Amino acid sequence: MTPSAVMTESSLHIPVMLDEVITALMPAAGKVFIDATFGNGGYSRALLESADCQVAAIDRDPDAILRGQPMVQSYHSRFSLLEGPFSQIAQLCAGAGIDQADGIVFDLGVCSTQLDQAERGFSFRSDGPLDMRMSRQGRDASDIVNELDEAELADIIWRFGEERASRRIAKAIVRARLDARIERTGQLADIIRSVMPRPKPGQADSATRTFQALRIYINGELDELETALADCEKLLAPDGVLAIVSFHSLEDRIVKNFLNLKSGNIPAPSRHRPEIAPPAPAIYRLSPRKPILPSENEIAVNARSRSAKLRVARRLGLADLQERSA
Ligand SMILES: C[S@@+](CC[C@H](N)C(=O)[O-])C[C@H]1O[C@@H](n2cnc3c(N)ncnc32)[C@H](O)[C@@H]1O
């Protein structure tokens, strides 16, 4: 059975680059895997079906944990589902008795199930409360757009949305909230669209970048990623595989820089950028060196995969270390 064949018909989220991810992780009997972003369980299920291995899956969204309960029932002791942020990957796994893994996978961002539920407030495509919290805890998007000052809002929209019109949009938000509190996704999208040129055919909605920025800010997504990547070093066994699927340049830059640094693959010093400190010994090998991209076929079937990049690294094992010291 190919990995994609193990997807159940009830899955609402099509796992991105599933075959490539499972091939990279090399499931085998007795191995232990961590799926740091359970979502609808596409990767976890494929791993569990591919070999008699063990999987611990994490998600900070209580709805995902609920959706995964039938899998907990079917796979018994081979599968555990842990609720929490993946920045606490080491503590969460320790709580489930796992202190070493043969593979860790991240599939970043939100899943289609979250986007499609208007009441979660992630999307401007259908009107809903302006929420965007994956964990359903803490300040929501409505608190942010109604309470932050104009400069702070512009900074968030610029940094996390790479939106050139960030100041114009922040000004429009602050002006609009004088009339009424901004509570709905549709309301915010209309405010943004009212100060932006109409997108040309094929271009993204003008609210896309601002919605991305707010979501990343509210969920602390980039800090989460940086902390988790550093922690994987504690968990991965020698020869263990780290596989990360990212969906936008801010995420991919963090992953790329981290893996380059940890695999000793840093650019040579130049006249303009003299070397400051000698690089630390490599602990990963990029394999392959370049990111893996979805096939045209996959993009045709699942538009969400369009912007995905899969980066894979292998933790150096004993043989590599002996080779280095020889
Ligand atoms: C793209 S979906 C994963 C889809 C999954 N691979 C599948 O095949 O169904 C990402 C999931 O990761 C979760 N997530 C995102 N950031 C997280 C974080 N920092 N900690 C824990 N879970 C997170 C989201 O709640 C979402 O359910």
Distance between the termini: 43 Å
Mean pLDDT across residues: 92
Strand content: 5-15%
Sketch the major β-sheet. 7 strands, mixed
Notable features of this structure?
single chain; 326 residues; alpha/beta; Rossmann fold; DNA polymerase, domain 1; 2 domains; seven-stranded mixed beta sheet; disordered N terminus; binds S-adenosylmethionine
Question: What can be said about this structure in brief?
Answer:
The protein folds into 2 domains: 3-112 and 224-325, Vaccinia Virus protein VP39 (Rossmann fold, 3-Layer(aba) Sandwich); 136-218, DNA polymerase, domain 1 (Orthogonal Bundle), CATH 1.10.150.170.
3D structure, described in words:
By secondary structure, the protein is an alpha/beta fold. Residues 1-11 have low confidence and may be disordered. It is built from 15 helices and 7 strands. It has helices spanning 18-25, 42-50, 62-67, 69-75, 89-95, 112-116, 141-147, 150-161, 166-179, 185-194, 208-218, 221-235, 249-262, 296-301, 318-325; strands spanning 32-35, 54-59, 79-83, 101-107, 236-246, 284-286, 309-315. The termini are far apart. Helix 8 (150-161) packs across helix 9 (166-179), helix 9 (166-179) crosses helix 10 (185-194) and helix 12 runs parallel beside helix 13. It has 2 domains: 3-112 and 224-325, Vaccinia Virus protein VP39 (Rossmann fold, 3-Layer(aba) Sandwich); 136-218, Putative methyltransferase TM0872, insert domain (DNA polymerase, domain 1, Orthogonal Bundle), CATH 1.10.150.170. The longest helix has 15 residues, at 221-235. The site of S-adenosylmethionine (SAM) has 21 residues, from helix 2 and strand 2.
